[in-house]
Amino acid sequence: MRSVRARAALGATVVVALALIGAGLSVLLVLRANLTDQAGLQAEVVAREVAGQLALDVPYDRLETRDEEDHPVQVTDEDGRVVAVSKDLRAISGTGTDRVTPDPSPAAGQSGDESGGGSGSDDDGSDNDAGDDAGDDAGDDDRGAPGRGEVDSDEPDFTNGTATVDGETADYRFASVRATTSAGVTLTVHAGAPLAAEQEAVGTVRGAMLIGLPLLLLVVAGVTWLVTRRALRPVEGIRREMAAITASEDLSRRVPEPGSRDEVARLARTTNETLTALEASVERQRRFVADASHELRSPIASLRTQLEVGAAHPELLDLPGAVADTVRLQALAADLLLLARLDAGERPGRTALDLGALVREEVSQRGGDRIPVTVSVPDSGEFEVAGSRGQLARVIGNLLDNAQRHARSAVTVSVRTAERGDVVVAVTDDGAGVPPQERERIFERFVRLDDARTRDDGGAGLGLAIARDVAARHGGRLTVGEAREGGARFELRLPGTG
Q1: CATH 3.30.565.10, domain 349-494, yes or no
Q2: What is the pLDDT of residues 280-312, one digit of tens each?
Q3: Quick check: 456 pLDDT over 70?
Q4: Exposed, middle or buried: residue 104 (CB in 10 Å: 0-12, 13-18, 19+)?
Q5: How many CB atoms lie within 10 A of CB 186?
Q6: 160, 197, 347, 407: most buried, per Cβ within 10 A?
Q7: Does an H or E element contain 296, and which?
């Protein structure tokens, strides 16, 4: 499924479906439990009414029950024999016995001759026997049998079953209540209450849920689809514009930014910022290629002219000029190669080196400079940094070259430690200095100020750009200010390892 709208709609529908199914099942369970409890309460009331009559020694055939069609009753004795049932009860289940025909044998405990014998005051000790039997049964029951002429006050036992009354079979909730006659006979009354209302209510709610749930899910899916479509409409506009930019290669175009402050608006702004940075990068690359081509064209053309003249007229060959052009071409190629490596993200080495010693070494190799360089490096200082020795030496050499090119009579290089353990190399000259408005521009590639545009006095405009890039790759920075002598003061600041 490739569409975000489809996935969002499906996800929302699934979540809502699970939530509704869980809520629906909970409602059905609670509803069923409540209605079942109500039926059980009705059954308990009927069972206690009948048990009360038995405790008062009402004969079995004279027991009165309310609404016998809705509340079937079955009475069993201690041995599980059926001694009485309600009128028109034809079948029953769930009460422990499915017999609905009273046992013809005499039931102990029924007073008078109506019980069919078994009086509670015979001389043969039937009372004691009955009492013993009741006691035995009570001993088998954890709760114990109620006393003579009493009804069990404990919570009744509840079961579910069926009963056939007057030819109709239905489900019932049965409550079992015990009572003991004055003769000591313990009887159990099983009275039922219909579960038809519970089943009807649960069925109605279930049917409503089965009908309403799909409709509700369709509504949720549709609304989610429409809302997601509306929310993603700006994204589609961004996509179309990006596709057009890619096809036209016109990086000056920008994607539309919605007026909202949501994630889509932030995406559009970030996309435009990326396009701006990409446009600037491509423009810098174009300028770099154009400037590099221009810078390379001059020494190559000069060298070719001298070689052609030398080939035709050997006596006219300017050998020192050809060598100078070759050296300049070699230096320019080296600068371009280093810039390419820096642009590619080459990480400098992490070799520990003494920056003070490196400065002394670089100055010592410049014996033939136009202006001598004064070095100020304390012997007791700790100037250890981590980085590439070759690249840092290149930075110091470029700074010295730049100072030599613009100085009138003096160039000074010093090394010191600064706050937080940084090591600072300062190169100053007594030249004209750098105007404040040009102090950032001079670090751009192929940039030379007007007074240094001649190729005899000025370089290709890459030295300071390389120096700043290398300083940044080493976690430091390169800045320019005004020296006390009035010239330029370049400061290379690198983090120390101490």
Answers
A1: yes
A2: 888 877 877 777 777 778 778 888 888 888 888
A3: no
A4: exposed
A5: 24
A6: 407
A7: helix 263-312
Residue 6 has which token pair? 């489809």
Q: In whole angstroms, what is the distance from residue 238 CA to residue 269 CA?
A: 10
Structure tokens at 286: 């174009």
Torsion sign across C-alpha atoms 405, 407, 408, 409: negative
Query: Residue 404 has which token pair?
Result: 């030599």
Give all strands (DSSP E) within 156-260, no chain letters: 157-165, 168-180, 186-194
Q: Residue 399 pLDDT > 90, yes or no?
A: yes
Which pLDDT does position 118 carry in this prediction?
33
Q: Left if phi > 0, otherwise alpha if psi is -120 to 50, otherwise beta: which for 426?
A: beta
Given a cut of 90, whether residue 314 has pLDDT beyond it is: no
Give per-residue pLDDT as tens, 232-243. Answer: 888 888 888 899
The answer to whether 179 and 54 are in contact (CB under 8 A) is yes
CATH topology of domain 251-346: Helix Hairpins (1.10.287)
Single pTM value for the model: 0.50
pLDDT the model gives residue 105 = 61
**Of the candidates 42, 113, 105, which has an alpha carbon nearest to the alpha carbon of residue 77?**
105
